[in-house]
Amino acid sequence: MKLLFQTTSRVELDAIKIKLESVGIPVFIGNEDSARNFGLVMPARSFACWTPLEDQYDDAVKFLNDETHIVESGVDINDYYASLELRNDGFLKNVVDKLMLVVVLMFICSFALFVYFKISDV
Question: Which of 60-69's residues contact partners 24+ apart within 8 Å by CB, and which partners?
């Protein structure tokens, strides 16, 4: 992931994001949540626009400098974002599965300890 630019203007950020995505260059917006908190506890004060696919960085810079530049490394934006959602869903499912396994194991251990101490009381 490479940094394309930083700005304090949400309007400028959205305009550039739309332009880049229209030619097949997905972007990641850094500081999106903290930049909105102007004046509050240590905000970032600016938005950072990154290109997550490093092989698109040169095309993105050239396109930002000259909108007539033909982007050769473009991807299908919908497919790209859909693949990210699938990846995130798979990660979340793995975390939930592991947490459930821990809960079940804790229940089994607790039950075994309960039975052990009940039997040893007799």
Answer: 60/4, 60/20, 60/25, 61/4, 63/19, 63/20, 63/23, 63/25, 64/4, 64/5, 64/16, 64/19, 64/20, 67/19
CB of 13 closer than 8 Å to CB of 31: no
Four-CA torsion 16, 66, 62, 12, nearest 10 degrees:
-20
Name 52's bridge partners: none
The pLDDT tens digits along the chain (122 residues) read: 899 988 888 899 999 999 999 999 999 888 766 545 555 554 557 788 999 998 999 999 999 999 999 998 889 988 888 887 766 655 666 677 788 888 889 999 999 898 888 887 76
Full-model pTM: 0.60
Sign of torsion over alpha carbons 74, 76, 81, 86: negative
Tell which phi-psi region holds residue 104, choosing left (phi > 0), alpha (psi between -120 and 50) or beta: alpha
Q: Is 62 helix (H, G, I), strand (E, B) or coil?
A: helix
